[in-house]
Specification:
This protein has 367 residues and is mainly α. It has helices at 11-23, 48-58, 99-111, 116-122, 147-151, 163-271, 276-295, 317-324, 334-366; strands spanning 3-5, 37-39, 45-47, 74-77, 84-87, 96-97, 124-126, 136-138, 143-145, 160-162. The relative contact order is 0.06.
Length: 367
């Protein structure tokens, strides 16, 4: 059933009042704002009761203060723009009242004796019966119509009901649906907030574990550096000992060579003496010296392979293979890791004293 809206001469003012009322409708209860009206930081308005209902739905775990229903702090989102509203300890009672909107509501109520929808209904006219108002609802076709359409028109065989009855029923259904939708949106927002908190927790835990991982590998590197220094010191000591021994032998052989060369030179000069008597005076002593010099036993030379340092070869293949097996421990908790770290620090602080006690034995063992 088609119908049109018939505009009366004075309907221009009614249309302005209609637009005004639309601006005074609360987005929560869909009714005109009830005092007091609070203004949110995003400049949207709510009934204080509706604001408190939205706040309590968004903060189900907040407890009431004393015997009142004022929540101490918290946050919720504006139902119009989803802007996050942060409340202080006064809750919604800490929001500023919008006195301008309250004054406009007072003026509107004084100027209007009937609800806006009642005025509009007076001008809903049937298209087929231009002088008939739309006053009944066809349940079969699910459209509003007039009485003549029921008696003579297209809806004469349909089941109808009074228009106010269907209006109240459907308005109640729509109100309930809006309430459920708002509640569902609040639950979805709560889930989103929880998941955002989960994301933040994941980032915090990941950052913490990265720090612990870096600390563990830095500790391993420190152990490797310390052990490398100890092995290099042992290698340097062995090198110095061998060099001192070989250089001592070189000096000993050099002294013997120098003395032998001087004796050879003296013997050659003596052999060049033309006078036999003079030669014989020195020959006996030289012969004895040459004989003694030839019988001198020098310190033994270094044994074969003495110069080799192969005994200081370090095999790291198995250690490298073991390091490659380092992996995360699924069952390890952060507290256990903290305890292990504290134990490592305690052991590290006791290390120098043990090294001082075991140092001489370690050095002798290396030698």
């Amino acid at each position: 059933m088609n119908f049109t809206v018939g505009f009366k001469p004075l309907l221009g003012d009614a249309h302005s009042m209609d637009n005004l009322e639309k601006q005074l409708i609360c987005p929560i209860c869909l009714e005109m704002f009830s005092k007091p009206v609070v203004i949110l930081p995003c400049q949207h308005n709510l009934c204080r009761k509706c604001a408190n209902d939205v706040f309590q739905a968004s903060n189900p775990l907040w407890q009431s203060r004393g015997s009142t229903t004022v929540s101490s702090g918290g946050r919720f989102r504006c139902p119009s723009c989803r802007h996050e509203v942060v409340l202080d300890r006064h809750g919604v009672y800490g929001l500023q009242r919008n006195l301008l909107v309250e004054n406009i509501i007072d003026i509107y109520k004084q100027e209007s004796s009937r609800p806006l929808h009642s005025k509009a209904e007076q001008h809903l006219m049937c298209e087929e019966h231009e002088e008939e108002k739309i006053n009944i609802y066809c349940l079969s076709c699910e459209v509003p119509t007039c009485s003549l359409c029921k008696v003579f028109g297209a809806h004469k065989d349909c089941e109808v009901a009074p228009l106010p009855t269907i209006y109240k029923r459907q308005k109640s259904e729509l109100s309930d649906g809006i309430a459920m939708l708002v509640a569902g949106n609040d639950r979805v927002q709560a889930v989103i907030t929880q998941m955002e908190e989960v994301c933040q927790t994941i980032e915090d835990n990941s950052r913490r574990q990265k720090q612990l991982l870096n600390q563990r590998f830095e500790s391993l590197c420190a152990v490797l550096e310390e052990r490398k220094g100890e092995l290099l010191q042992a290698l340097a000591r062995e090198q110095e000992e061998k060099l001192q021994r070989v250089r001592g032998l070189i000096r000993q052989y050099g002294d013997h060579l120098e003395a032998s060369s001087k004796l050879v030179e003296s013997a050659i000069q003596s052999m060049e003496e033309p006078q036999m008597a003079l030669y014989l005076q020195q020959a006996k002593e030289l012969i004895n010296k040459v004989g003694a010099m030839s019988k001198v036993e020098l310190a033994g030379r270094p044994e074969p392979g003495y110069e080799s340092m192969d005994q200081f070869t370090v095999s790291v293949e198995h250690v490298a293979e073991m390091l490659r097996t380092i992996d995360f421990q699924p069952g390890a908790s952060g507290e256990e890791e903290d305890e292990e770290a504290s134990l490592d620090r305690d052991e590290g602080s006791a290390g120098p004293e043990e090294e001082r006690l075991e140092g001489p034995e370690g050095e002798s063992g290396l030698r």
